[in-house]
Amino acid sequence: MAASREHSVSLIFMGPRTNIIQQLSTVFAFSLIIFFMFYLAQIAVLLVVTVPLAIATIALGPFDLHGKRVYRINQLWTWLVLRIGGISVTVSGLENIEAGHQYIFMVNHQSNIDIPVLVQSLVQFQLRWIAKKELLRVPLFGWAMWATKHVTVDRSDPLDAVKSLKRAKERIAAGISIVVFPEGTRSRDGRLLPFKKGGFLLATQTRTKIVPITIWGSANVLPAGEWRLRPGIVEVFVDKPIATDGYRAGKLRALSKQVREIILTRLHSLKQPGDARAVKANSGDRSFDKLTA
């Protein structure tokens, strides 16, 4: 009898706990299903938007000498991508630049969403990227890049690098501004990486002003290695143009350091307590001379 009573008491105490665990498991499974449904729906909508616009860009590109008309399709696509992802963009400093002028925009790079963010931040400008040639092999995206006349570089071929500078000069002469990610790749830990000299060489050779631009928050809405867009706010800061007339090939390091310090200072001002990415960005300036030596 005593054993039976103890068993009954244990069931009384275990019963509610078991029910709670079962309910939590059900809620978790339901939430997971809802998450994947929204994720798949987002992917489907992006594909529905991307495929026809990419095809239109590719079809019209050969008839557009500098890609100025098809670039308008790019602007529509980037607007739709940001809206579908629930991403808002705030821009500060547009008063520092003049529409109708050509610039070389030097931008920190933390996410694949940086490109749509820039296109929508600088809507009054025709923008072309200097990007690695391997991107042209990406179906639809790479072909649309080719049709829009972005400047690609084969980094393993020094002669192609010279040709890419010539193509970039042609774009600037046609009234197009060039976007350069001077880090050369996305920063996966948020730290501002050392700058490469190619964009600065282009700026000095064409005597085109450099505009430092800082993007903040893009790594939160689309982290490196992921494809799911997360709703959020991305901030863009446009600093004052830097004249390149007084710089020559031998002074590229000084010019690079000046631009990097402006972006790094901006990142420091945006640093939030407990934000690991901001702390790592803060540590980057100490190692600049060492990393670029």
Describe the structure.
- This protein is an alpha/beta fold.
- The chain has one domain: Glycerol-3-phosphate (1)-acyltransferase, CATH 3.40.1130.
- Helix content is 52%, strand content 13%.
- It contains 10 helices and 7 strands.
- The protein has helices at 2-60, 68-85, 114-121, 141-147, 158-173, 198-206, 218-221, 252-269, 276-284, 288-291; strands at 87-92, 104-107, 127-132, 151-153, 177-180, 210-216, 232-238.
- A 7-stranded mixed beta sheet has the order 1-7-6-2-5-3-4, sandwiched between helices.
- Helix 1 (2-60) runs antiparallel to helix 2, helix 1 (2-60) runs parallel beside helix 4 and helix 2 (68-85) crosses helix 3.
- The protein is globular.
- The protein starts with a helix and ends with a helix.
Cα(first) to Cα(last) distance is 84 Å
The residue ranges in which pLDDT falls below 50 over 5 or more consecutive positions are 273-293
Total domains = 1
Numbering strands along the chain, what is their spatial order in the largest sheet?
Answer: 1-7-6-2-5-3-4
Q: Gyration radius, to the nearest Å?
A: 25 Å
- The proportion of strand residues reads 5-15%
Can you tell me the CATH topology?
Glycerol-3-phosphate (1)-acyltransferase
**CATH arch. level architecture:** 3-Layer(aba) Sandwich
Counted by DSSP, the helix tally is 10
**Structural category:** alpha/beta
Mean of all residue-level pLDDT scores: 82
**Fraction of residues in helix:** 40-55%
Order of helix and strand elements from N to C terminus: HHEEHEHEHEHEHEHHH
- Specify the biggest β-sheet: 7 strands, mixed
The CATH class designation is Alpha Beta
Number of strand segments: 7
Question: Overall 3D geometry?
Answer: globular
